[in-house]
Structure formats: structure tokens, C-alpha cells
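Anyone able to model this chain together with zinc ion?
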Amino acid sequence: MTLSLVTIPCLKDNYAYLLHDEASDETVLIDAPEAGPILAELKKRGWSLDAIWLTHHHWDHIDGVGPIVEATSAAVLGAAADSHRLPPLSRELVEGDTIKIGAELAQVIDVSGHTLGHIAFYLPVSGMAFTADSLMAAGCGRLFEGTPDLMFASLAKLRKLPPETLICSGHEYTTSNLAFAATVDPDNQALHARSARVAKARAEGRATVPSRLAGELATNPFLRADDPHIRQRLGMADATDAQVFTQLRAMKDRF
Ligand code: ZN
Ligand code: FE
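re: yes, here you go
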């Protein structure tokens, strides 16, 4: 059993995702930046939408919910912690909850840091994680509400997933993320190889998401606070991993 995954570019640099289960004919949308491209994709594929799973409350992830619910009557699932600032929810989620598409389970993981209440959805059978603005391709979300320690702990949960997991993140920020990564991890050959692949993809107008966790572990500096070269580069050989992460995040904010 495998699910179909469709990546939908929205707004300037957002991504929404559709999951479709052939056996049950169920379709789920992860995040709703805007209704137009999502409804067009559903129509093109002849899929009717059953549910919208929301990762966090930022407008560029939820603005499409109203018109999409109006058009499809989809159920809306989101974090209980965010229910006061999300569109009306059919179900409120907390870490450890499992939700379903067809026969497949998705686990709810609290990945607060970008916001408090940001959740991710992990589907162990299909090997996908919808991480939005927590773990991103070659980067991680900016800390609007959480502390660096909180984001570090959230990323540690994602880091432990199987390396072949597909990381479905929320934005096309990969080019600038890799440019930053090269400043703190300049001798990393996997990083340079990824930068070349990403430059080619962008030149051809292709999305650079989803990405494999294995590739993130090899090239994403926010998963590499324990890397000796990065630590040495930052002059933080004796710091804790969380301290190195905090410094990396601060440097990226100024980049
Ligand atoms: Zn956000
Ligand atoms: Fe966002």
C-alpha cells in the first residue's frame, strides 16, 4: 500500500501537499496557503477532499481553508494548542495522536519552535513527514514564538526518524538555506553537490521539496550541531549541541 503524494506550489514560495489513498479513495490536504491551485489540482485529478491537516496558524498555511471547506466540506484537523487561532476545527490534535488516511496511520508530533503549537505529521508506512516550517529543506523555520532550545528538541524528534523518510516542508527556501549552510560547513562535499542539484532544479522551475531525511542529515546545518567541522568553524568545539544550534539559528537570522 502506498499513497500518492502531490506537491502544489502556492503563493510566492509556499507548498501544500495532497495525499491520496487509491484503495479508499480518500484524499487529505496538508496546509492550505491558498484555495485556487489546490482546488484546481483536486479537479484535475478527480479527487474529492476528505480532510485538511494544518501544521500551524500562520496565514500562509491556512488562508485557503475557508474557501476549500466551502467547496469540498472537508474536515479540518489542527493542533489543540492553536485552536484559538486556527479556522474552526473538526478535531483538535495533541502529540501522540494518530489520525488516518485510508488504512494508513499518521502520527502527530509536536515540533514547536517556529510557533508554539506547530505540529508535524509522520506516516511510518509510506515514510513521509509533513514538517512545514519546522525542519525545512537545508534549513529550519525562524523562531517566532519558541526558544532555540525548544526548536532544537523538536528537530531532535525528526532527526530520529528513518533516514529514508521524505521530508515534506512548507517553503521553497532551499537556495538561500544552502547559501547559508555553505558559510558554516564549507568543506562538506555533500552540501556542494546538493547545491548544484538545487541550482539545476530551480533553473528548470522544479520544486526542491520533498527531500530525504538522509540528505538533510548530511547537509542541513540545523541537524549537524554535533559536526566537528561546524563546531570548529564556529569556535564552539566544547559547547553543547543545543548551544551550537542556537548560534547557527542566530547567524542565519543575520545572514
Ligand atoms: Zn509559518
Ligand atoms: Fe510558512
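The domain at 4-254 is CATH 3.60.15.10 (Metallo-beta-lactamase; Chain A).
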